[in-house]
Amino acid sequence: LSLPFLGFVEASDPLFQATRRAVLSEKNPWYFIGELGVGGVGGPHQGKDMIWPMSLMMQAWTSDSIDEVTAVLKHLMLVTEPNSLMHESFNKNDLKVFTRSWFAWANTLFGDLILRIASHPTLYPAANLTKPLDLDALIHGWQPQIFMV
Q: What's the mean pLDDT in 70-80?
């Protein structure tokens, strides 16, 4: 699912698209959908019924559908209970059951995903924006502030 993110293949590649459909389906024994409607990939590392938020991030990263990306973002925000941070994994039916209350890798990847969506020429509406962010202009136009106490 992460091959386009890692630069090994284009997300539009037909073979990758077929693989993506299989990975994000019940054909994959490690794909779980819970009672809350949140689905994602897990693995033997955390066990049955445990979904990795990073799998949802890769799902969004490899999508060109505003509707799919919007739904995934909503799901990601939902699964940050109880501390508004990304976990390593969460139970498909009980969001209070999770591993690692704070998982830096997942939190960083989520920030990267938000910046990608917010600056993408067609996906920016998924982040509730009226136009894409110009990150270069934003960064280059930023002036550090020095606060004296």
A: 92
Note the pTM of the prediction, 2 decimals.
0.87
89 burial via Cβ count (<10 Å: 0-12, 13-18, 19+)? buried
User: Which H or E run includes 41?
Assistant: strand 39-41
What's the CA gap between 130 and 140, in Å, rounded?
21
pLDDT at 138 (0 to 100) = 76
Paired tokens of 25: 């389906």
Q: Kindly report the number of other CB atoms within 10 A of residue 99's CB atom.
A: 15
What is the reported pLDDT for 127? 84
Q: What is the pLDDT of residue 99?
A: 93
CA distances from 134 to 122, 140, 145 (A): 13, 10, 21
Tally of CB atoms within 10 A around 98: 24
CA 97 to each of CA 91, 92, 94, 120: distance values in angstroms, whole numbers, following the listed order? 6, 9, 6, 34
CB-based contacts of 26, cutoff 8 Å, min separation 6: 33
Count the neighbouring beta carbons within 10 Å of the beta carbon of residue 73: 20
Q: How many residues does the chain have?
A: 149
